[in-house]
Amino acid sequence: MIDLIVEVLGGDRFLAQDLGRTHRVYPASSADRDRFAGLLAWAALNQLLDTHRLEPPRLRLSADSATIPASEYSERRTYRRMAPWEAPQPHLVAEQLRNGATLVLDAIEEMHPPIGAMVSTLERHLRTGVQVNAYASWTAREGFGVHWDDHDVIVLQVSGAKRWRIYGPTRPAPLYRDVEFDDAPPEHPIDEFVLQAGDALHVPRGWWHAAAASTGQHSLHLTCGLSTHTGIDLLSWVVDELRAQASVRADLPRLADPDAQTVWRRQMSKLLAERLNDPLVIDAYLAARDAASGARGGFSLPHAVHDRLKDDPDLQVRLVTPRAVLHRTEQTLTLEAAGQRWTLASQATPLLEALSSGRPATLSTLAQAGNVTTDQAVDLLDQLLRSGIIAVGEA
């Protein structure tokens, strides 16, 4: 499992100086040209395309900033018990790609375990949601033209080469839902370069850019889109929290006299100011978002259907909520994950810390970490399995 932040992007330097601030290329050494090859081999991509029902917009072909109609490369199939769908035909897709189209596959982390494992590590580091899209192209024709994204992007060049132009921002920190939009990109790029296999690139939110396969080479790259945490997000969360206040839930004093409305406005201002003046409000917001973050996978058949987990020392256990939150006191440990909360005895701390590392562990290893028997460990793990927090299975 590759750790992008530490092994590729420079760890704390990336977090402190690059993320969301400036574009930067992270070149691979000649010995590291294949460092992303294990994330998505061509054979693996072919298998995904062959074995999954992938419909637009999740799978799409694009050229010159336009999406190619699925009817131009698909065949309609009907089923007795399923909705009909447009099945992409390999020879027609290849023809479109020869003519300059780009193939895009969204949210590939949900289908391909190596990328899913990388995403879990990224989310644990960055404390935000991550979606990975795969892009494959063969010509210098651009699939999307000059554009900007409403999220920070980390690009991983898996195979071949991609030519990039970076233009920079025209509107600071634009949003998906914004009050105005700037549709005119800068006239001239501020940087041009070619990403080779093994290279990585960071492009901040709102920075105009364009990309195309380098002439004479194919290109396969992954784009990791990082969900943002903005002031709007925090204020929305604070307002949701204030629903606990009866005065906030009450009707607006729209028919009251001006003096009464002034009293109401001052009361609202005080409530907001008190919450925003809390020096821990940002940490509290991030912890709440972490605790609400859902699971990534977790099917555990046949074990999850049994009345109780089998006491098998070699049973593999893994946490499927990468952003689980642990709160420790001398007597208790509180676990928050996927919108749920458990309060446990502090003796469970070593076991849950081992799980929260994100690495799979055997039942015996977890029991040893918690200084309990495997049967005692099963008592806790069985609860977490039934709540969708962990997955179990054979190695």
TrEMBL record:
<keyword id="KW-0479">Metal-binding</keyword>
<dbReference type="Pfam" id="PF08007">
    <property type="entry name" value="JmjC_2"/>
</dbReference>
<keyword id="KW-0408">Iron</keyword>
<dbReference type="InterPro" id="IPR003347">
    <property type="entry name" value="JmjC_dom"/>
</dbReference>
<dbReference type="GO" id="GO:0046872">
    <property type="term" value="F:metal ion binding"/>
</dbReference>
<protein>
    <submittedName>
        <fullName>Ribosomal protein L16 Arg81 hydroxylase</fullName>
    </submittedName>
</protein>
<keyword id="KW-0687">Ribonucleoprotein</keyword>
<keyword id="KW-0689">Ribosomal protein</keyword>
<dbReference type="GO" id="GO:0005840">
    <property type="term" value="C:ribosome"/>
</dbReference>
<feature type="domain" description="JmjC">
    <location>
        <begin position="92"/>
        <end position="243"/>
    </location>
</feature>
<dbReference type="InterPro" id="IPR039994">
    <property type="entry name" value="NO66-like"/>
</dbReference>
